[in-house]
Amino acid sequence: MLFIDPAFLFIFLPVVVAGFWGAWRLGGRRAALGWMLAACVVFYGSWDWRDVPVLAFSLAVNFGCGWKLAAESAPERRRLWLAGGLAFNLGLLVWYKYAAWLFSCLAAGGLLPSALETRALPLGISFFTFQQIVHLMGVWRTGRTERSPVKYVLFVAFFPHLIAGPIVRPGEIIPQLQRRPRVGALLRRLPNALTLIILGLAKKLLLADALAPTADAVFQAADAGHSLGAAESWLGLVAYGMQIYFDFSAYSEIALGLALLFGVRLPVNFDAPYRAASIVDFWRRWHMTLSRFLRDFLYLPLGGGQCGPVRQSFNLAVTMLLGGLWHGAHANFLLWGAWHGGLLALCHAWWRLALPAPPRLLGWALTFASVTLGWAFFRASTTEGACHLLASAFGLGGGPSPETWQAIPLLPIQDLIAAASIQGLPIGGVLEWFRPAQRAGWMLTALATACALFGPRVWTWVQPQQKHFGWGLALVLGVLSFLVTVRQFQGLPSPFIYFGF
Predict the structure, then answer these.
(1) Which of 13, 22, 52, 178 is deepest in the core (most CB within 10 A)?
(2) The Cα angle at residue 115 between residues 112 and 119, in degrees rounded to 5
(3) Residue of 327, 330, 340, 388 marked active site
(4) What's 138-151 look like in SS3?
(5) Alpha-carbon torsion 451, 454, 460, 465, what sign?
(6) 357-371 per-position pLDDT tens digit
(7) Per-residue pLDDT averaged across 30-58, rounded?
């Protein structure tokens, strides 16, 4: 089930929320947590029941390693249990995520007779593996672990964040599971929760999915080696940058809203990253829980910035290379990580030399352009395609190609306008403006960019003291709900991008 599926929103979610609160009232905490555990298993198993044993095996091994790590007092045995737990998690990740790639490389070099055939990657394995590494490192440092198997499983497998994060820590979830939720508190949080869910759905269905055909057209042309002009190359790069931002931030905000329905407050994962005026600031705002993980468990243990400039640059490069590799077994992800590692090293070197900071507008423009160019490696299917797109962005691609846009079907915004026209609304002429795919792509990309740069920081609305819900917002949410519903029933939407990682 996708968060954006009607079956999830109108059947699964109401049943789970009602059952959770009913179980609390009738049977107490144990009944409510048991109900939630069953709901998480059903949610995860609805994708592929073959993945449930993988998740269960990972949970069992990590829970046992954490228990033994907390029980042991001898440093040598504690190190042994920590090393064993980390080796298990990394081995599981390597086997499912990288084994096929490694074996194909060996087969291509003639070292193996044939490549290894593996089934599809278990959904969310990158996220629940990293989360359990966080747990083991916390036990190593504090000597304390969660003794309840049910609470531990819910800390990892709580369905709002199970598939694509945010990557949470035990102290951010488990204490909230122990508190009895109050109906009054739920009612006070309900407007904020619904706002987050509806706006997240709108981001995904009305912006991210609408931008996908434009980005796909340009990147597919680049991968095929077709001629591209500078303008359409930048259009594809910016469109994809906005697509992945609105796609992933939509998931994160829907997750925040869903968790609030159960009295749980998840950590924020995005904070207007495209408004950053430096690459360091960008990584403080983009996928914040992954950035926190990379900082705390890779960058700082390597020495962080408490060393010379050369070593700090090395630490940044290693951290970002591994961060790129985490996204998948492809040379492009390594190049993307190297690109950001180089940008971070350059930014820190600038600060070390105490050079004057550029004006904020110039800093923002350089940061936005650098991040946007980096998406070429992240999205392109081939390294050659990424290099061709980057060359085209600087006028070296041979000029614009009308064929790039001919195969694009009607964009979602065109479908919406057509549907509204059928309902008798006098906006049929608007469809003529959006009919050319390239023009629609420019308009949608400009709209998405304006929303990313000037729109409200929606995550602030999960704060308990914030009261943003009023008649104006209610009207906006009503219109968005209508548009989202129309999109949902036009066909099954595409999965979230980060489901592939």
Answers:
(1) 13
(2) 145
(3) 327
(4) HHHHHCCCCCCHHH
(5) negative
(6) 889 999 999 999 999
(7) 91
In sequence order, the 6+-apart residues with CB closer than 8 A to the CB of 8 are 1, 2
- Identity (one letter) of the amino acid at 114? S
Between 415 and 353, the more confident residue is 353
The rounded distance, in Å, linking the Cα atoms of 459 and 482 is 23
The number of residues making up the chain comes to: 501
Residue with tokens 């008798």: 424
Q: Is the pLDDT of residue 411 over 60?
A: no
Query: Tokens in use for 85?
Result: 């737990």
pLDDT digits (tens, 9 = 90+) for 304-327: 888 888 899 999 999 999 999 888
DSSP calls for 106-171: HHHTTSSSSPPP--PPPTTHHHHHHHHHHHHHHHHHHS-----HHHHHHHHH-HHHHTT-----HH
Q: Is 327 known to be catalytic?
A: yes
Q: Report the C-alpha gap between 210 and 4 in whole angstroms.
A: 15
Q: What is the C-alpha separation between 460 and 129, in angstroms, rounded?
A: 28
Residue 228 main-chain phi, psi, to 5 deg: -135, 140
The Cα–Cα gap between 471 and 251 comes to 26
Q: Which residue type sits at 310?
A: V
The conformational region for residue 110 under phi > 0 = left, psi -120 to 50 = alpha, else beta, is left
Quote the CA–CA distance of 172 and 139 in Å, as a whole number: 15
